Amino acid sequence: MAFISRGFRGKRRDTASGSRVPPGQHVVDDFPVLSAGPTPRVPLSEWSFSIVGELDEPKTWTWDEFRRLPSETVSVDIHCVTKWSKLDTSWTGVSVETILEGVETAADYAVAYCDGGYTTNLPVDDLRGRQAWIAFEYDGQPLDPEHGGPARLLVPHLYLWKSAKWVRGISLQAEDEPGFWESNGYHNRGDPWREQRYWGD
Amino acid sequence: MARAAVLGRLTWQLGEVAELIQETPRVSSLVLDVPDWPGHLAGQHVDVRLTAEDGYQAQRSYSIASAPESAQVTLTVERLPDGEVSPYLVGELRTGEKVELRGPIGGYFVWRAGDERPLLLIGGGSGIVPLMAMIRHHAATAAAAPVRLLYSSRSIEDVIYKDELARLTADDTGLAVAHTLTRSQPAGWEGYSRRIDGEMVAEVAWPKKDAPAVFICGPTAFVETASSLLVESGYDPAWIRTERFGATGG
Q: If you count Cβ atoms within 10 Å of the first and of the last residue's Cβ in chain B, which end, N or C, has fewer?
């Protein structure tokens, strides 16, 4: 039983959007930025994306090769563990399903790694099935560096720290390996609908 | 990377407001007695949860302003005009009343007194709050690391912890503070009077040969500017830890 805060009423949203907002979240119209260090800046000529780890041959795409992969534009709701949610955000990217096409692997786990040293871990199942993308456009424009450009992982069904900014590759692994925030008190999976914010949630 | 300071499950606890301190016209500190507080590190935050009579709930995160050595947990909260939780915490909540919180949270944007590297703190507006926990931790432990704070506020009335910062500077604790006031300055102002820029950073920051530890907290644009200026001046990005406040509707 939660403690009642005398005199607190709150600002309620209409129920139509309310059903799309996970517990403990509130809707914002701006796009807050959170990251643990300076924004890395890598020229596209030096950028590449790789799949490494538990597969026969590591695969690498240059920026031009990556951009020639089939991409799609999706409209999704995103949820940050710092309590804000943003509805109907539009992203363009290459689905991880497409990236993993033809990759033979027995790995159950993945670690996304990034410029700046950030990492985040996910079960491979959370990356497959057209529910995760390597996004390079937001709202029809190239992704801003502060939002993770040139490309970030987008996994909207998990808290946004899993949608790693400045992503440069995915390591496929037999064992789960906690990433940056997952080693710093945050939940290993991060399902917003189960409010998996922190260790033990 | 440091392993977390947060161990085990974070449960909701009740804190009782022992004292309310109006820091500026928009900002107040809530000094809380939290009976089962597990302790925290300087730079960590808590989640606060408010529940209405009909069960409606709202949660927000707030930085801890008090040193780990403090017996009480102090949160410093800026009242956001369109906010949902902050107008309740700053304005409605009274001394002796209780509020639900859980924490501490975050194991990365933290500074420990044993770290002897020169410390550079750069804060914009209420971004000073987690940095103040570090400054208080530094003073409480008489830590060896020299500290420089560059603190940007709109006006002199908006400077949070103004007197305490002046006192700590005068007490020769190893803290030097450079203020900049971006919108208006009082007569005779001797600090900076502009937004943070390369010249200001070059004057205040430790030379890169000192390989300092850097913590930057403030609005997104401020943090982007400050961290980019440091990286451009030759700082290793790995020295710099950031925390950003967007207008997250507090």
A: N
Cβ neighbours of residue B170 closer than 8 Å, sequence gap 6 or more: none
Nearest chain B residue to A146 by CA: give it.
B224
3-state secondary structure of A13: coil
Q: A112: helix, coil or strand?
A: strand
**Residue where a domain stops, chosen among B77, B105, B133:** B105
Partner-chain contact A33 B238, CB within 8 Å: no
Q: Beta-carbon neighbour count of residue B8 at 10 Å?
A: 9
* Alpha carbon B171 to chain centroid, angstroms: 21
| CATH code of the domain covering residue B128 | 3.40.50.80
State in Å, rounded, how far the first CA of chain B is from the last one: 30
Indicate the CATH number for domain A23-32+43-194. 3.90.420.10
* Domain end position, chosen among B52, B73, B105: B105
Q: Tell me: the pLDDT tens digits for B151-178?
A: 999 999 999 999 999 999 999 899 999 9
pLDDT in tens, B69-111: 999 999 999 999 889 999 999 999 999 999 999 999 988 999 9
Domain that holds residue B57: 13-105
Q: Which of B14, B244, B245 to mutate to test the interface with A (most CBs of A within 10 A)?
A: B244
Q: What is the CA radius of gyration of chain A?
A: 17
- Residue ranges of the domains in chain A? 23-32+43-194
